[in-house]
Write a structure and sequence with these properties.
- InterPro entries: ATP-dep_AA_Ligase, ATP-grasp, ATP-grasp_PylC-type.
- It comes from Kribbella qitaiheensis.
- One of its GO terms (molecular function) is ligase activity.
- Keywords: ATP-binding, Ligase, Nucleotide-binding.
- The chain is built from 11 helices and 17 strands.
- The strands form 3 sheets. The protein has an 8-stranded antiparallel β-sheet with strand order 14-13-10-11-12-15-17-16, with helices on both faces.
- Helices cover 28% and strands 29% of the residues.
- The longest helix has 14 residues, at 56-69.
- Helix 2 (56-69) packs across helix 3 and helix 4 (108-117) packs across helix 7.
- With 390 residues, the chain is α+β, with helices and mostly antiparallel strands.
- The structure holds adenosine-5'-triphosphate and magnesium ion.
- Adenosine-5'-triphosphate (ATP) is lined by residues 144, 146, 150-154, 156, 183-186, 190, 212, 218, 220, 255, 257, 266-267.
Length: 390
């Protein structure tokens, strides 16, 4: 029986270990950004071990010890902050990994070069070591500056004119996430393609429509599934990008903007989409993608599992003003919302991440319905602003 080492589970993922045909050891990473409950649902794993997230040597020691006792066949992680540990363990023990194969987790500029070589639509970009390089880039057209190793929209700044350049440079450098990458500013609606890859065969499971606060920082404010757009070109470009990176196994969350010249890649994340996108996928299609990716890791079978959406689901984030956040509200809705038809749940989970205070999750017959219900519920929160106060 396959022995899987799962790194960095969250409660809903760990709950999918129930009824799984394999032996799973759970490695929880203490202090991991975004949080990782150390013990929740550990009881469904064959074994539970912990290591400190920021101690790579400790993580490798623990994995090597486990492997001596009960040899591991595969190591998997499905969240951003588990990926460095997955790559290191796979390389050291010489075992299969998800995402696979492991790589050096190239920065966004190297990814751009690989996408272009793999036939994706080109996006002008330049890794800049000095502000005057950014200036020359911006003179050629509107740009987005972002950290080469960024995530969570940290340090992203749109620059339309050269007089905004210095502010943009400082903003990106302030995030402390690597060099400053300047990219051509892509205009158009934004989407993500949720994919599943097994032994080099890619399946686009669903296209998600994404809402952001727009320039200058493009903070995510919500998602709806299925996307209200023609999805074929988006799926094709996403699959091209996965092949270009050499990705063969595991879920991915591929972000794109549909420009007048067709869909162009924003970035590829070789993991499940965050923001409960896996729950939207289950609500709109019935596919339990969390269970599916665990099955794929245990027993890779490239057969397609997807199907068309039979319903729609949306998530909206409630962002707070500085004052709301500082006062530590749990603001309650001003009017009762519990009985709103289509509301699955709202959660108040304040985080300093762009002052996000919580989320509203809804279900509808179609995407417009699901988005409408989410907006209706959000408006019931005192101080809610649709564009996010970010
Ligand atoms: N070249 C670009 N043109 C237009 N918009 C862009 C561009 N690059 C990034 N953006 C916007 O900024 C957002 C964040 O950029 P990106 O996804 O590269 O950073 P990130 O920090 O990895 O974000 P996240 O983790 O939130 O997905 C994108 O979702 C998009 O809205
Ligand atoms: Mg992104």
């Amino acid at each position: 029986m396959t022995h899987l080492l799962l790194v960095g589970a969250w409660p809903e993922l760990a709950a999918r270990l129930v009824g799984l045909p394999g032996r799973v050891t759970l490695l929880q990473l203490e202090g991991m950004p975004g949080g990782s409950d150390l013990t929740a649902y550990g009881r469904w794993a064959a074994d539970l071990v912990t290591a400190r997230w920021d101690q790579p040597a400790e993580i490798l020691d623990i994995a090597a010890g486990l492997n001596r006792r009960d040899p591991l066949d595969v190591v998997a992680g499905y969240g951003e902050f588990a990926l460095p540990a997955v790559a290191a363990i796979s390389a050291q023990l010489g075992i299969r990994s998800v995402p696979g194969p492991v790589d050096q987790r190239p920065g966004k500029s190297v990814q751009r070069t690989l996408f272009a070589a793999g036939g994706c639509r080109p996006v002008r970009h330049l890794l800049c070591s000095r502000p005057d390089e950014v200036r020359a880039f911006v003179e050629a057209g509107p740009a987005v500056l972002k950290p080469d190793l960024g995530n969570g929209s940290l340090g992203v700044f749109a620059v339309d004119r050269t007089d905004q350049m210095e502010q943009g440079w400082r903003w990106v450098r302030g995030a402390g996430l690597g060099a400053v990458l300047a990219e051509e500013r892509l205009s158009g609606p934004e989407f993500s393609v949720e994919t599943r890859s097994v032994s080099g065969l890619h399946e686009a499971l669903m296209v998600t429509e994404k809402f952001t606060s727009g320039p200058p920082h493009f903070v995510e404010i919500g998602h709806v599934m299925p996307a209200r757009t023609d999805v074929d070109e988006l799926k094709d470009e996403a699959v091209r990008a996965l092949s270009a990176l050499g990705h063969t196994d595991g879920p991915a969350h591929v972000e794109l903007i549909r420009t007048d010249d067709g869909p162009k890649i924003v970035e590829v994340n070789r993991r499940l989409g965050g923001d409960r996108i896996w729950e939207l996928l289950q609500l709109s299609t019935g596919i339990d993608v969390l269970r599916q990716v665990l099955l794929d890791a245990l027993d890779p079978k490239p057969a397609a599992v997807g199907g068309d959406a039979t319903a729609a689901a949306a998530i909206r984030f409630v962002h707070g003003s500085e004052a709301m956040f500082a006062n530590g509200l749990p603001a309650r809705p001003a009017e009762p919302i519990e009985a709103v038809e289509g509301l699955i749940r709202w959660r108040w989970e304040p985080t300093t991440y762009h002052r996000r205070l919580g989320y509203v999750l809804t279900y509808g017959a179609d995407p417009t319905d699901a988005v409408g219900i989410a907006e209706q519920v959000c408006k019931a929160f005192p101080g809610y602003s649709p564009a996010g106060t970010v």
